[in-house]
Design brief:
Translation Initiation Factor IF3, Aspartate Aminotransferase, domain 1, about 15% strand, alpha/beta, globular, 12 helices, four-stranded mixed sheet, 14 strands, seven-stranded mixed sheet
Length: about 450
C-alpha cells in the first residue's frame, strides 16, 4: 500500500532506527552529569549536535534541539522578537507560512505587536520586492519558509535574506520541508527544522541562531540547550534524528533526481487523464518529491477516503476535508482552486510502478466521486434560456456551489451573467478559481441577506 504523504511525516529511515536502538542502550543517562554514564551520553549529544550543525550549515554552538519543529518555530520567533524589542514590534511573514509561524504571529499581534503579511503569486512564491516594501525602521523580525509545505514551491530565501541583512533585520527560515534535501541558501539568521519530515523520529526539532543575532529566550531559565529549550531532552531520538539527517543528505542528490522524474510524470498526466483539474505550485522551482492538484466538482474528503480504500495514502488542503469548512490558507493566498485538492509527496524509494498504479486508478476514482455528487464529466451543456440567472446555493457546501454554477453557465448566452448566492466561505475562493480555470470572467461579490452573491460573466 503506497504511502504518498511524506510531507506530513516521512517513514523512519533505517539509519534512524539503528541509531535509536543503539542510543537507547548508551544514551539513557543525564548528559549533564560527570560520571561515566553521563559522559557517554554527553559524547552522543555532542556528536549529534555536530552532525546536525554540519547539515544545517552553522556552528555546533549555534544549534539546539527542541521537542518539535513547532516548538522550534515558536521559540525562535518569540526569542528574536524579545531580543529586538528595543528596535520595535513589527513582524513580517509570508501569507503561506506554516501554521506554526502564523500562530506565533497571531500571538504577537494579540500582545500589541504589528504584523505584515506578504502576499504570494499564483505559484505560491513571494516576490522579494514584497519583503523590501514591508521592511521598516521598527521591524524586529522577518520570517520566510524555505519551501511550501502544501504545494512544494521553493521560496527566494537568499534574495530576501540579502534584503533583510541590508536593513539589519534578522530572517527566520522554517526549513522543515527542505532540510532533508539540502542546506538553505542565503545569509539567514535563524533556522528551524523538524526531524520527522526527513525520516527521523517524531519529537525532535532544530533551532539554529547565528552568533550576533539578538535573541532572548522566553520562559523560565534553564541550564540545558543554551537556555533555549528547557527540560531533559530525548537523547536517543536526538541521536537518531541527526544520524538520519546525515544519511538522507548523502542520498539526496540521486533521490531528488529520480523522484523529480516521477513527479513530473504526475504533473503531466493528471492534467491529461482527469478532466477539469488544476495542477498548482511552481512547475520548476519546487521540492523534487511533491505535487498538488485540485479537481473540480469533487468532495475532497470523499476523494481521499476512496484513494485510501484503494491503497494510496495522500493528503489534502481542501476545505472539504476540514470540519471548519474553511479552505487552506495556502491555497487561499495563491487564489487557486481548493475543492478536490490532493497533495502527493513521495517518500524515498517510491517506484515508477507505484506512481503508474496511482495514475491508472485516479481517473476512475475522481469520476466515481463526481457521479456520487450527480455531476457528469464534464458538466453537460445546456441551451441559453435567459440573459442572466441567479442560483440559490444557500446551505450547500463545497463543492456544490461550483457544481450548481457549472450546471447553469451555458443557460445564459455568451456575455450573460450568472449570480451564485452562497453562505459557504469556500465559495469566495473556488468560484473565482473556477472562472480562471474554465475561461469565464469573475465580476465580484456583494453581500446578500444571509449569504454573498458572486457574479460571473460567461465568456465562451
Amino acid at each position: 500500500m503506497p504511502y504518498f504523504d511524506t510531507a506530513s511525516a516521512a517513514p523512519l529511515h533505517p539509519v534512524a532506527r539503528q541509531a535509536l536502538h543503539a542510543a537507547l542502550d548508551e544514551g539513557w543517562a543525564d548528559p549533564a552529569r560527570l560520571y561515566r554514564e553521563g559522559r557517554r551520553a554527553r559524547l552522543l549529544l555532542d556528536a549529534a549536535r555536530e552532525a546536525a550543525a554540519e547539515a544545517v550549515g552553522c556552528r555546533p554552538d549555534e544549534l539546539v534541539f527542541t521537542p518539535s519543529g513547532t516548538h522550534a518555530v515558536h521559540s525562535g520567533v518569540a526569542g528574536a522578537l524579545a531580543g529586538r524589542r528595543r528596535v520595535g514590534g513589527h513582524l513580517i511573514v509570508s501569507a503561506v507560512e506554516h501554521s506554526s509561524v502564523l500562530h506565533a504571529a497571531e500571538l504577537h499581534a494579540a500582545a500589541g505587536g504589528s504584523v505584515t503579511e506578504v502576499p504570494v503569486g499564483r505559484t505560491g512564491a513571494v516576490a522579494p520586492e514584497g519583503y523590501a516594501a514591508a521592511l521598516a525602521s521598527g521591524t524586529a523580525l522577518a520570517c520566510l519558509q524555505s519551501a511550501n509545505h502544501e504545494v512544494g514551491t521553493v521560496q527566494p530565501v537568499a534574495e530576501v535574506a540579502e534584503l533583510c541583512g541590508a536593513a539589519g533585520v534578522p530572517l527566520l527560515v522554517d526549513a522543515a520541508q527542505s532540510l532533508g534535501w539540502g542546506p538553505v541558501e542565503g545569509a539567514w539568521s535563524i533556522l528551524t527544522g523538524s526531524a520527522h519530515k526527513w525520516g527521523g523520529p517524531p519529537g525532535v526539532g532544530l533551532l539554529a541562531v547565528r552568533k550576533g543575532v539578538r535573541f532572548s529566550p522566553q520562559g523560565p531559565a534553564d541550564e540545558r540547550e543554551s537556555g533555549r529549550s528547557p527540560g531533559f531532552g530525548n537523547l536517543p531520538a536526538i541521536v537518531a534524528a541527526a544520524a538520519s539527517l546525515r544519511a538522507v543528505r548523502a542520498e539526496a542528490e540521486a533521490e531528488a533526481a529520480r523522484l523529480r522524474v516521477l513527479v513530473d510524470r504526475i504533473r503531466r498526466r493528471v492534467a491529461r487523464l482527469v478532466p477539469d483539474v488544476e495542477v498548482v505550485g511552481d512547475a520548476e522551482r519546487r521540492l523534487p518529491h511533491l505535487v498538488t492538484f485540485s479537481c473540480l466538482y469533487v468532495d475532497g474528503e470523499t476523494l481521499l477516503h476512496e484513494l485510501d480504500r484503494a491503497g494510496y495514502s495522500v493528503s489534502s488542503g481542501s476545505s472539504c476535508t476540514s470540519s471548519t469548512l474553511t479552505p487552506s490558507h495556502v491555497l487561499r493566498a495563491m487564489g487557486v482552486l481548493s475543492e478536490g485538492n490532493v497533495r502527493v509527496s513521495l517518500p524515498a524509494g517510491t517506484t515508477a510502478q507505484e506512481v503508474n498504479g496511482f495514475l491508472e486508478l485516479l481517473p476512475g476514482v475522481v469520476a466515481g466521486v463526481r457521479e456520487k455528487l450527480g455531476v457528469a464529466e464534464p458538466v453537460a451543456a445546456a441551451e441559453p434560456v435567459a440573459e442572466s440567472l441567479e442560483v440559490d446555493a444557500l446551505g450547500l457546501r463545497c463543492p456544490q456551489p461550483v457544481i450548481e454554477l457549472a450546471r447553469v453557465i451555458t443557460s445564459v448566452p455568451v456575455g450573460g451573467t450568472v449570480t451564485v448566492l452562497s453562505d459557504d466561505e469556500v465559495a469566495r475562493l473556488d468560484i473565482p478559481a473556477w472562472c480562471a480555470l474554465r475561461g469565464h470572467a469573475y465580476l465580484g461579490e456583494s453581500p446578500r441577506g444571509q449569504g454573498v452573491a458572486y457574479a460571473v460573466r460567461r465568456l465562451r
